[in-house]
Amino acid sequence: MTAEKSIAAVVVDVVARGTDRPFDYHVPETLRDVIEVGSRVRVSFGHRKVMGYVVRLSGEASYGRLKPILDVMDLVPPLTPELVDLGLWMAETCFCHPITALNAMVPAVLKGRYRRVVRIHPRFAPGTVLAPEEEALIERLRREGERPLETVLAWPGVSRSLIRQLVRERRLLVEERVGDRVTRRRTRWVKPAVSGQALRRALDALPPRALRQREILSHFLDRPEAVPLSRLLASLKAGRSSVDSLVEKGLLQLEEREELRDPFAGRSFEQTSPPPLTPEQERAFRAIVGPLREGRHHRILLHGVTGSGKTEVYLQAIDETLKRGRQAIVLVPEISLTPQMVARFKGRFGPRVAVLHSGLSGGERFDEWRKIRSGEVQVAIGARSAIFAPFSNLGLIVIDEEHESSYKQEEQPKYHAREVAFRRGMAHRAVVVLGTATPAVETIHRAGRGELERVVLSRRVQGRPLPRVDVVDMREELREGNRSIFSRMLQEALEQCVSRGEQAVLFLNRRGFSTFVLCRACGKVLECSHCDISLTFHRTNRTLRCHYCGHAEPVPEACPACDSTHIRYFGTGTQRVEEEIARLFPGMRVIRMDVDTTNRKGAHEELLGRFGAGEADVLLGTQMIAKGLDFPRVTLVGVIAADTMLHLPDFRAAERTFQLLTQVSGRAGRHNLSGRVVIQTYSPMHYSIDLAARADTESFYRKELLSRKQHRYPPFCRLFTLLFSHPDRQAVMQASFEASRLLKQTLAGRAEVLGPVPATIPRMKDRYRLQVFIKYTDEEVAKAVKKVLRHLEERAEDPELRISVDRDG
DNA sequence: AGCACGCCGACT
DNA sequence: GTCGGCGTGCTC
Fold this sequence. Notes:
Binding site for Zn(2+) 2: 528, 531, 546, 549
InterPro entries: DEAD/DEAH_box_helicase_dom, Helicase_ATP-bd, Helicase_C-like, P-loop_NTPase, PriA, PriA_3primeBD, PriA_3primeBD_sf, PriA_C
Structural class: alpha/beta
Protein name: Replication restart protein PriA
Cofactor: Zn(2+)
CATH topology of the largest domain: Rossmann fold
Distance between the termini: 45 Å
Strand order of the largest sheet: 14-15-13-16-17-12-18
Binding site for Zn(2+) 1: 519, 522, 559, 562
């Protein structure tokens, strides 16, 4: 049936308008039994050679003069047909080039590497006299052989035109090399080359002086299997020469084996067995394994309070998955991919787990990936991109902390791991479990519509109570003369906690400054009258602007609510809090964790390790300390300013605030000591703060969904955010206004087009940024938007104009 | 993205 | 008259 494989549709590794579709190539006979859908191939494209992925094999061409596939680059195709399909779907839904989507699914080392080399032409044409610099170049290439083009260009007296001239004269050849960045680690292994009896005879025949050779041979008499050369030499204290002479005699043989780097080599994990489940956990477990056993695609929201033992449910469900010969993916936010978490999975599944985290080198990541591709492991645990783990028979996908925004990739391809998980789940008839204490509002909404089954874990394991939560009204503090960052209650609690020898976590949810404007007397935050979104302070012209609808007004002299003049541009940095602690509590030991102290690799783990070891009394940090940490001695959690996130110009602000407060509160009192939480805020009555403090999750989601519905935000519509950017302000204004007009015209009556308005960050990297929002429900609108964008791109005469598209809901 | 093809200014 | 500037368009 090779005729069926005679034509390959290839997505080439070229990102440009017009290359966002496959190109057909002829498959030479010799490649027909190795080429598959998902194979990485080398092809000629235009005037050069590039890498590409086979996305379809057929017997029919859509084009007359096909070029051949030059080469299939891997023995095992990096992508499965299912992943190819997934990639094309992603390109479609994420508005990116297919190659961008396909490349995102494989380890970075497989991305194409292109280099050009210069060498002497094999049929070097003699003849005309050469100029001295030509002579020198040719002489050097004769000496050094083939050299990279960039290297040669750097040689004295060599220019592009000189090389071009010599190529024309058939004296030099410039060739393109397409490869990847793969390095494979190889080790040498030794094994007997003859039978046991022959070995025995050879041993007897050895001269008595050949002590080392004797030892080596007797080793293989006992254990005839291959051993790594280095291990053999080390254990017998032998040298290379003895092995070499045995190889020479034909008694032993050496072989090169490719070795997979094991990032956990030499580390042992205590093997654990599944503990009995609580009745609630048992119910969740059954909800997962029911459809799993039936081989039916199913989606479950595992809504469990912090400390309710979700991980144990995952572990046992994975176990069940493996027993059925299927595989599992576990996604966790990068930040909670801590050694403790890894140890838990390694402890249960040992060598059947591949761990993919950002700390791995390119090569290690590739090796973990290959273990998955080859079926050597059956469980993959990792951050967002682990959703592409190339399993062939997925049974279960778990997304832990499913509400986390890190599951959405900010760069192209802008995919959401949750949506990818659903798609893969359908393809494999697998069960998808979303676990969290604070589901995304969309997820709750979907569960309400029956798109997911919601399973609740309402109790903490071993009956530990949720911590006591106090909300402190910071307006009151100010009124009573406390101008410190710390309320009296938090000061007191902190002092008591540390004097008992326990630890505290202080949480400040934003680094540096934010730009919302707050009245310190009454807590009023200035909001847009049309959008219920905080106004943003613009220093340049001292105005307040709404980043959603464009409304602008001057900064008022006095608070519109209470007439106080204590109006303030809000913002407190972690450094300032640290200074304040030093002032109020001399001698208290603080570990500060923010972007500044953790940008070094491994710094995160190191700081947490030191805190866990009791080297500090207080852990002070931003977002990054909100989840995952579980230290037995932490009994106090303080939230310095719960408002900072609440007033970001984002329709998810209330949701994020609620999630964050609930998550940080969950950090206190997870073990035998009881916990306490103090939340400081200027908006104690805001529902996201009040309901988080009272752990009233149900009311929060009810209220938030109502608010979204009233203001028409996702999940009650879908939302496009188009970001126009350009180094010139005038140009981006014009382009975005024009685009907005065109969109309004095209989508009239079908969608709401808002803007353009300045982006949250109006200028970034010397580019001015404007946004246009499109609210819609009809999927046809998405197609229309895509068409308009394509049209705009095609006739954009300005190459500096960039349009990026984001989609919510 | 690259590179050729193609149509207008300053040089052997 | 030619070398080369970079606008336009295509790549199976």
